[in-house]
């Protein structure tokens, strides 16, 4: 069904060469179309309610918690297993075998038999066989320093120092959030007709959001257990400022390459939203609103801390750029070309992260139409062959839509420096140096650029022999090219089909791939631990369950206020 | 054991690559098996039956053209499984039908023929009417006809046995495909002919089966799953200190 955005005449979309540049993609921020934002809006709009149906935590906070989620359409249960974990076993990596908490989101009821099956398998994660009614399977580890500080403060009747959450914005950090059939759980196809969770990763986002709720309940429970007479609850401002961490490594990279149609949808929805926002008539009110958003984002980035030198430099550049943007906007009155002029000026004067931040905030100004595209973030994924196409037309398609792939030089060692593979250690994805490490013969076919280059070379030779040949005739001669050809044919018909980078290149930064996906999830506080390993925070600043439910129905002003939680800043707990 | 559709598809893809399939063929083969199983058509059983043969085949040996004109193509699959790169033979028939309105493709000397249904679904999705015909055995003589209507993702299937076996029948290990751009080719049984209807599955039956499979999961033989896992593990690289650092993680995750 066409949305209002589709009916806008001649949206000026940014060119793919600019948008799909890996360094630019690696500078994206969470936006109002990010999955966590979208989920919170849906929960508020539809008055989702969560109740605790089983609370069996002991004085150490270990045991089972079960929550019931009721939406207008269905009921679900979140089941959390909390256990003691020796510090030496606390690992963020996929090769870990035990975690502080393991949890799952279940469709429907949790009968005793299912709970027993889950208790035997959910804590094992990948090593267990999971039930097909589980929609999400996940685990998380504590941020010990934050956790201990929070329990200690609350037990002594004090509020924790908000600065602790500014340094590390959570009590728990997830290390994997599985959906779509992994280890026996439900296939995503089962959710496609379910209005609660039919958007990409929405069930996973809900599971993470529920863990945030649990983490608050658990620290309050521990504080009460330790000091029943003096313990206090966590202040609402701190509950809001508390997010959930996520630790991500190279495992995220194959998804981006193996789901090009989904990435195209995500990027295209965002770009259409930006083009539409850019085409709106700026007013004095919208100019002032953008400045308000910029000031909050400025404070967010001033406060953001990371030990990573490159990210520290990028954050500083963002802060500096935002100050310049605010100054520019203060000097400029609202005219018809304000947004175009601003973005042109930012191209020349702002860092990449700041340019994408301005785009993100510009989208915030026009929620009514832009939010309509969130239903288009998913798609059916199938790469289709067009065997009847002329081989010459395929060659032209590569030249016109994949010119970036033809930059690959097979004779240049830097162009094939890396190779991607899976290790025998729990199939963890890794990067190796081709000239130095064994295993290149088993590499994952993630470098699409060099593959398209190879197809192009073979096509060139085929066309010398058979100038009027068809694609299927080319493939009969070169059957190994089938997957690449149908990818070219399918993605060539889309504006933002491929990440335009050679993933073998020595200068390629895997961090950019991770950030691309995480930004669509809604992650903030990017805290790289190496060039291929990053910690982020989700849902920091998001409203709480108790705020989402309302007897007042869909009050537009209330929903707008609840949705305004991007780029959160440290709360001031001092009495005014 | 119970597995999800996505698990069966993913494990199959890795196992087929482990056997030596090209990536595209491995993706297609895994999808054919999982698609068949999800629709209650015995994809896993067919794979189990054919896997030992598959392991002895040369995955690089493609079907060869025996005869072709503008409408009619005959290929020899060299006694290989249809799971290999036979999909290109089907694509050739598709391209001919697009150009000429109708095409006939015969693939001779192939096994695991029932799994072809999983790929025909792809062709029907692209707007092609497709019918496939083959004989399963000789005593009794069983014929199977599968028909997809253009744009429909599931077929109608007829399986029947013939009471009177023609004198000149001989072993048939081939498959015949008819594709038409503009007319339905759905199978329907002649009521005045002496045959026994063994199975008739409608689109609705198959859709319901898929719905059940998504709720309950797919049953896979434990031994077959272990075999697939062993094949898939051929793609994994041994761990070393260099490879552990290649993951890029820090040394301590306590904070």
TrEMBL record, chain A:
It comes from Marinobacter orientalis. This is Uncharacterized protein. It comes from the Bacteria.
Automatic annotation (TrEMBL), chain B:
SUPFAM superfamilies: L-sulfolactate dehydrogenase-like (SSF89733). GO terms for molecular function: oxidoreductase activity. Pfam families: DUF3726 (PF12525). This is DUF3726 domain-containing protein.
């Amino acid at each position: 069904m066409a949305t209002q955005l589709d009916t806008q005449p001649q949206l000026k979309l940014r060119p793919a060469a600019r948008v799909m540049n890996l360094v630019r993609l690696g500078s994206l921020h969470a936006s109002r179309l990010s999955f966590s934002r979208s989920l919170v809006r849906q929960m508020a709009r539809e008055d989702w309610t969560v109740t605790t149906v089983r609370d069996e935590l002991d004085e150490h906070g270990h045991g089972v918690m079960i929550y019931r989620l009721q939406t207008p359409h269905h009921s679900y249960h979140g089941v959390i297993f909390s256990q003691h974990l020796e510090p030496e076993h606390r690992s963020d990596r996929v090769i870990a075998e035990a975690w502080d908490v393991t949890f799952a989101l279940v469709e429907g009821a949790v009968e005793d038999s299912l709970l027993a099956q889950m208790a035997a398998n959910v804590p094992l994660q990948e090593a267990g066989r999971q039930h097909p009614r589980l929609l999400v399977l996940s685990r998380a580890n504590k941020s010990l320093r934050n956790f201990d500080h929070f329990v200690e403060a609350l037990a002594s009747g004090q509020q924790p120092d908000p600065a602790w959450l500014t340094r590390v914005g959570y009590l728990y950090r997830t290390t994997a959030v599985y959906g779509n059939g992994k280890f026996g759980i439900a296939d995503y196809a089962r959710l496609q007709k379910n209005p609660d969770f039919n958007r990409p990763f929405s069930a996973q986002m809900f599971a993470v959001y529920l863990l945030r709720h649990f983490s608050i309940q658990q620290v309050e429970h521990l504080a009460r257990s330790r000091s029943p007479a003096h313990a206090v609850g966590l202040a609402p401002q701190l509950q809001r400022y508390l997010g959930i961490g996520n630790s991500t490594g190279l495992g995220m990279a194959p998804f981006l390459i193996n789901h090009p149609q989904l990435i195209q949808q995500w990027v295209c929805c965002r770009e259409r939203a930006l083009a539409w926002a850019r085409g709106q008539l700026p007013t004095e009110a919208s100019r002032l609103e953008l400045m308000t958003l910029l000031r909050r984002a400025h404070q967010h980035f001033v406060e953001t801390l990371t030990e990573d030198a490159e990210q520290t430099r990028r954050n500083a550049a963002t802060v500096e750029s935002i100050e310049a943007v605010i100054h520019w906007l203060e000097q400029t009155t609202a005219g018809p070309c304000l947004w175009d002029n601003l973005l042109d000026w930012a191209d020349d004067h702002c860092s990449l992260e700041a340019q994408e931040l301005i785009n993100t905030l510009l989208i915030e100004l026009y929620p009514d139409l832009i939010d309509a595209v969130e239903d288009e973030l998913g798609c059916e994924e199938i790469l289709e062959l067009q065997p009847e196409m002329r081989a010459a037309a395929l060659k032209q398609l590569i030249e016109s839509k994949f010119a970036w792939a033809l930059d690959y030089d097979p004779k240049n060692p830097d162009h094939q420096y890396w190779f991607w593979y899976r290790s025998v250690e729990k199939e963890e994805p890794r990067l190796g140096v081709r000239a130095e490490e064994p295993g290149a013969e088993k590499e994952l076919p993630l470098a699409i650029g060099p593959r398209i280059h190879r197809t192009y070379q073979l096509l060139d030779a085929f066309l010398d022999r058979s100038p009027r040949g068809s694609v299927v005739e080319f493939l009969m001669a070169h059957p190994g090219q089938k997957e690449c050809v149908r990818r070219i044919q399918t993605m060539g018909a889309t504006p933002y089909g491929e990440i335009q980078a050679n993933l073998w290149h020595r200068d390629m930064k895997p961090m950019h791939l991770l950030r691309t996906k995480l930004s669509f999830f809604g992650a903030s506080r990017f805290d790289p631990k190496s060039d291929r390993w990053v910690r982020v925070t989700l849902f920091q600043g998001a409203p709480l369950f108790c705020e989402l439910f309302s007897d007042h129905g869909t009050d537009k002003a209330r929903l707008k206020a609840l949705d305004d939680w991007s780029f959160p800043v440290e709360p001031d707990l001092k009495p005014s | 054991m119970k597995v999800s559709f996505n698990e069966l598809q993913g494990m199959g893809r890795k196992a087929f690559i482990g056997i030596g399939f090209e990536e595209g063929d491995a993706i297609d083969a895994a999808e054919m098996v999982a698609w068949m199983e999800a629709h209650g058509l015995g994809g896993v059983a067919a794979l189990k039956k054919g896997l030992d043969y598959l392991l002895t085949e040369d995955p690089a040996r493609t079907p060869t053209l025996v005869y072709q004109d503008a409408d009619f193509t005959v290929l020899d699959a060299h006694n290989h499984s249809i799971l290999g790169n036979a999909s290109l033979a089907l694509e050739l028939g598709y391209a001919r039908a697009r150009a000429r309105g109708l095409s006939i493709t015969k693939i001779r000397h192939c096994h695991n023929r029932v799994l072809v249904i999983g790929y025909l679904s792809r062709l029907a999705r692209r707007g092609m009417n497709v019918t496939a015909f083959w004989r399963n055995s000789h005593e009794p003589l069983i014929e199977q006809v599968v028909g997809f209507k253009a744009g429909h993702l599931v077929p109608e299937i007829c399986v029947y046995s013939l009471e009177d076996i023609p004198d000149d029948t001989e072993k048939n290990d081939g498959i015949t495909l008819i594709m038409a751009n503009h007319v339905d080719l759905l199978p329907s049984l002649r009521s005045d002919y002496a045959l026994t209807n063994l199975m008739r599955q409608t689109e609705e039956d198959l859709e319901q089966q898929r719905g059940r499979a998504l709720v309950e999961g797919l049953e896979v033989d434990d031994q077959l799953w272990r075999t697939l896992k062993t094949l898939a593990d051929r793609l994994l690289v041994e761990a070393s200190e260099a490879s552990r650092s290649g993951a890029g993680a820090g040394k301590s995750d306590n904070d």
